[in-house]
């Protein structure tokens, strides 16, 4: 499967990995930051569900 036909979440993951690697972000820093991003996205998703 080529990346062009991959689902959006796979494309985004590949882009994020490339961004982290290109900027030589230490794994511990990336993991800590991604946990914050995940929490934020989960809160926004829960908020949007409760508004409907």
Automatic annotation (TrEMBL):
InterPro entries: DUF2496_YbaM-rel. It comes from the Bacteria. Pfam families: DUF2496. This is DUF2496 domain-containing protein. It comes from Marinomonas gallaica.
């Amino acid at each position: 499967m080529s990346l062009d036909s991959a689902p959006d979440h796979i494309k985004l993951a590949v882009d994020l990995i490339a961004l982290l690697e290109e900027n030589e972000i230490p794994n511990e820093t990336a993991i800590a930051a991604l946990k914050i991003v995940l929490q934020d996205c989960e809160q926004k998703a829960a908020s949007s569900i409760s508004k409907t």
